[in-house]
Amino acid sequence: MAGVAHCSLQAKRLLLDPKFEGYKLSLEPLACYQLELDAAVAEAKLRDDQYTLDHMRAFGMYNYLHLDSWYQDNVYYVDQFGRVMNLSVTLDTALQKPREVFRLPTDLTAYDDRLCASMHFSSSTWLTLSDGTGRLYLIKSGKRGDSASEKWEIVFNEELGRPFIITHSVSFVKSDMHSVAVLLLRVEKDELDTKGSGFHITLEWITIAEISKEGDHRYEIFKRRVLQGKSVPHYAAIEPSGDGLMVVSYKPFKFMKDEDDKLEENDDAKTTNEKKVEDPLYYWQQTEDDVTITVDIPQDITKDDIKVHFSPDNICVTLKDQPPLMEGKLSSSVDHESCTWIIKDNKSLEISLVKKNEGPWWPELIVGDTRGEFIMDPAQRSEIAESLMHLTSEVMNPNPEKEKPPCNAQELEECDAFLEDSASLCRFDGITLKVTHVINLGSNQYLFSVVVDPKEMPCFCLRHDVDALLWQPHSDQPENMWEHIATFNALGYVQASKQDKKFMACAPDYSYAALCECLRRVFIYRQPTPLSTVLYNRKEGRQVGQVAKQLVATLEASDPILGFQATRERLFVLTTKTLFLIKVNSGY
């Protein structure tokens, strides 16, 4: 992928606690309130033809409870009569029954192939809504959570093909034109896939804009774009400006020309694969002291046509008046005053770089540049093989008495392994429809997403070693596009032991994280807080200044949990016929 910036996530060391001692089980009672629903939640159960893991992830594990992040403690769900029900909480002791704020025009019971109804709050006064039959509604709501000023008005309503669920939407103004961009997810039959599951995933990115025609203002579809992949994305969100899209997925997504051109796109891909692979732009070698680069040049190029600029951390090579042949940040610093270049045999340019720090090997020449090929000297190859010899053996543990025996894979715990170990985070440009940034997440398992600031993109939480780190995307900050904003100590390890977990969430102020099982049990992990009493660690004989607590709540319900949302003060848990409120924090 030429032109793609290969990035990495930089954790803030100040937000990590290497001395975290674990969670102390707390038996303090949690105030739990429950509201019986007038009608059951409009649950769409998986059909016999929805048998794949992707169907289960997209629809079987769907969160039927929707949190309105623009207004505090405001949740919504759709019941079996097609009513959008709202609960807005101010006082736990004065809870009102969920109230109807909107009724879908569609009779949900008349459709056998519908999916779950879905919604997303694009702004404080706009939202997108789907009934699960393939119809999309754009709604102007007024100030939500307030029965006096809240009135949901449909401004756009259109059938968009096969059923879908809404994954994200944003509202923005560009060139004095109000637009709402929405992301729709489908799992579709793939007749060309004979070896896989027989299905592919599509993300349709639709922009609905306010169009003025002869004084008449109305909303119409302004643009439709489709991405296709082979796995349900863990995370997919549109940038607040509507200029780009970020996707975390196990298998990559790519834009299709349009839905009718999928076969043609497939043929193009085959043709591309059959083409001869291009030769590397340059070759490079290295020793402990220096790096040598060889670049083929046209025979008519003279010494005067070549410009090579060295700096401590960068290199730039230009031929004649053409754009730079090589340019970028070097893998490590060099002594730029000692760097040289020569022309060899009138056909190649040889550049010698002197390493500033002798010894460390460079993993790449220019950061993010994949156009070159590293050539290893045979002596170096045998030296590396010899240094790794002690790590290999035909016997699992040939010398068990040795102080540090080789790692035995059988000793790894179940929670140290997970199914998808090579997910990636990609940022797509909305104009070129190409990937601009890629992060290989490697073993950083995706856990959940949360909205910390509704004006920003949703944050995503990844496992890093035993911890869980929260990352905030900043689409308007190219140098700091993904910021580490919080750490949930040991949560990566703890959640892996919960085999029946269904949903995970955290408070937008990071004060706690929580997860629920499929039935009844909810686990809450409060982050370290100062103690009001003196506590000593007996083993080390020192005073403990703060403690992290684990709390467990067991719901009085036999129905499966269908929805789970967290706010600063409360956890909301939705079952088929009941909505539970668990008071986690007080004093706000």
UniProtKB/TrEMBL annotation:
InterPro entries noted in UniProt: CS_dom (IPR007052), HSP20-like_chaperone (IPR008978), NUDCD1 (IPR037895)
Signal peptide: none
Keywords, comma-separated and alphabetical: Cytoplasm, Nucleus
Protein's UniProt keywords contain Cytoplasm: yes
Top-level division of the source organism's lineage: Eukaryota
Places the protein is found: Cytoplasm; Nucleus
Domain CS: 277-366
SUPFAM superfamilies associated with the record: HSP20-like chaperones
Cellular-component GO terms for this entry: cytoplasm; nucleus
Xref: Pfam families: CS
Name of the protein: NudC domain-containing protein 1
